[in-house]
Amino acid sequence: MTSPAGNPSDPSDAVRPLLRTRQIREFTDEPLSDDVLTAIADVARWSGSSSNQQPWRFIVLTDAPTIRRLGETGLPQTRSLATASAALVIVLPAAEDRAVRDAYDDGRVAERVLVAASLLDIGAGIAWIRSEHRQAVNELLGIPDDHLVRTVMALGHPTDAARQPKAAPGTARLPREETVFRDRWPR
Ligand SMILES: Cc1cc2nc3c(=O)[nH]c(=O)nc-3n(C[C@H](O)[C@H](O)[C@H](O)COP(=O)(O)O)c2cc1C
Q1: Domains (ranges, CATH) in the chain?
Q2: Cis peptide preceding 76, ω within 30 of 0
Q3: Residue 175's pLDDT is what?
Q4: What is the pTM of this model?
Q5: Cα–Cα distance, 125 to 117 (Å, whole number)
Q6: What gap in Å lies between CA 8 and CA 124, rounded to an integer?
Q7: 80 closest CA partner among 140, 127, 149
Q8: Which numbered atom of ligand 1 lies nearest the CA of 24?
Q9: Measured from the CA of 128, which atom of ligand 1 is nearest?
């Protein structure tokens, strides 16, 4: 039996915080502290990016009416913003020739914010902005036309229900033998 924190010399225990990281889509109305929001924003801006270009800019939202309007704009993907007490908006250049590279960097930020939230014992969830809603989001947040928002990270304190596992332990991902191969593609 290992302690709840695990045995850091055991690789499986050491990476457990990453395996435990989950999407949260329902939050209480308790606000997040400025220290927590600053820590999350620092994790975001310290993410790695292609050629270290740091193409992103971030908008930290705490104004409830703005978060709710953003949530109504992109349903159903943005449903987590119906209760989020804060959000981190990832703003990227809109140039088509950078789209794949920037989407990759966007995902790196999003995943790190999920992990940071988990380490801070708060919740975070990806809210994807479909392309047809990008203009409305830009207008709501005053973002110029040469930039776009693909991802908004909903943030807050999870409700008890949201903390509950959505699947039986070990079943939320495909089995290792179906997804991880040694040395070559399986015959
Ligand atoms: C590229 C991408 C886009 C996603 N978009 C949304 C979204 O718009 N709304 C949402 O609620 N979850 C979104 N998710 C979260 C996935 O639904 C989630 O990672 C998956 O269901 C696994 O959930 P779990 O990590 O809690 O096990 C997105 C995830 C990825 C990687």
Answers
A1: 23-161 (3.40.109.10)
A2: yes
A3: 95
A4: 0.93
A5: 9
A6: 25
A7: 127
A8: 26
A9: 8
